[in-house]
């Protein structure tokens, strides 16, 4: 029986420290143009990106999604007592996806969402990615947000989050309808860095990250909607400035003129956002280092 092209292949990846991660690979259903890794947002399960992955596959990009440790299909039992650091999702988990999808015959691209834009600069193997396009990446500081959202976020950091973590031993975010539950250390790191206007770049204990991000030379496009309350363009600019040696261009999306309707922080990957996906894939297709047609057909 011929496999259903809309059903991805489930894979087990091994993170840099050996932790097993569950990933889904959507094989290209058009002539192969490249490989693509989807770097998801904090607390967002990989199935949220299914429609995007299916679309990318239909355009010739074999696409891998994954759940970081402790999230979605990569969660093992309860999060109570589960210890990790937030940035392991980048340098241990996402790096394994890059290694799994890197190829000698076709270019590798990456799309990020929110945390995905943070993660790219932390990858030990970011040079294997030909181009990187990220949506909704920002510095996380409440001061970049509109006033009403600022107070909501501060209430979450200072009151709701601590209550939930003391009660459960982890951030029971699902009870707020905001996504997957988060390991305790992820909450603590995230809360700490969101105190700073430039996120972990302003943390004296994280001085080493400046050099990591400065080492990135992969071309980057960073798109943020003007109605994204968590990551408005000013927040994006504060964070993305760290990619100072990359060709990094910012793109502002105005829902009022784009015809896409409200986007917010999560709307970039809803079906209605397909024009945004088309733009990202079009830019990938312009990559000057694309392999020869013969190699593409042989892969």
Computed Rg = 19 Å
The tally of strands reads 8
Strand content: 15-25%
Q: Report the top-level CATH class.
A: Alpha Beta
Order of helices and strands: EEEHEHEHEHHHEHEHHH
The tally of helices reads 10
Label the structural class. Answer: alpha/beta
| Helical proportion, percent range | 25-40%
Molecular structure report:
The chain has 299 residues and is of the alpha/beta class. The protein has one domain (9-298): 3-Layer(aba) Sandwich (Rossmann fold), CATH 3.40.50.1820. It is 32% helix and 16% strand. The protein has ten helices and eight strands. An eight-stranded mixed β-sheet has the order 1-2-4-3-5-6-7-8. The longest helix has 22 residues, at 147-168. The radius of gyration is 19 Å and the shape is globular. 45% of the residues are buried. The model is unreliable at 290-299 (pLDDT under 50).
Briefly say what this structure is.
The chain has about 300 residues and is an alpha/beta fold. The chain has 10 helices and 8 strands.
Considering the chains and any ligands shown, give keywords for the structure.
disordered C terminus; alpha/beta; globular; Rossmann fold; 32% helix; 299 residues; 10 helices
Q: Could you give the topology of this structure?
A:
Elements: E1 9-14, E2 20-26, E3 34-39, H1 50-58, E4 61-66, H2 88-101, E5 108-113, H3 115-120, E6 131-135, H4 147-168, H5 184-193, H6 209-214, E7 220-225, H7 233-240, E8 248-253, H8 255-258, H9 274-285, H10 293-298
Parallel strand pairs: 3-4, 3-5, 5-6, 6-7, 7-8
Antiparallel strand pairs: 1-2, 2-4
């Amino acid at each position: 029986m011929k496999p259903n092209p809309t059903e991805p292949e489930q894979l087990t990846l091994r993170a840099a420290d050996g932790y097993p991660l569950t990933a889904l690979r959507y094989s290209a259903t058009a002539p192969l143009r490249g490989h693509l890794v989807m770097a998801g947002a904090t607390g967002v399960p990989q199935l949220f990106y299914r429609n995007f992955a299916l679309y990318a596959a239909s355009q010739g990009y074999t696409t891998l999604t994954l759940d970081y440790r402790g999230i979605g299909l990569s969660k093992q039992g309860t999060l109570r007592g589960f210890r990790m650091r937030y940035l392991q999702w980048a340098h241990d988990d996402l790096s394994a996806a890059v290694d799994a999808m890197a190829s000698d015959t076709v270019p590798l691209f990456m799309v990020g969402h929110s945390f995905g834009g943070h993660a790219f600069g932390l990858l030990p193997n970011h040079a294997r990615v030909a181009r990187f396009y990220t949506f909704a990446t920002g510095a996380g500081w409440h001061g970049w947000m509109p006033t009403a959202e600022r107070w909501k976020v501060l209430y979450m950091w200072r009151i709701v989050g601590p209550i939930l973590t003391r009660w459960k031993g982890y951030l029971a975010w699902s009870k707020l309808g905001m996504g997957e539950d988060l390991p305790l250390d992820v909450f603590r790191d995230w809360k700490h860095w969101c105190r700073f206007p430039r996120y972990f770049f302003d943390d004296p204990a994280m001085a080493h990250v400046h050099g990591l991000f400065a080492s990135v030379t992969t071309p980057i496009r960073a798109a943020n909607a003007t109605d994204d309350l968590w990551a408005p363009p000013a927040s994006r600019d504060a964070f993305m400035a760290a990619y100072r040696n990359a060709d990094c261009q910012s793109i502002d999306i105005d829902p009022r003129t784009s015809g896409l309707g409200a986007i917010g922080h999560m709307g970039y990957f809803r079906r209605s956002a397909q024009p945004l996906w088309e733009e990202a894939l079009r830019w990938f297709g312009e990559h000057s280092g694309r392999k020869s047609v013969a190699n593409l057909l042989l892969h």
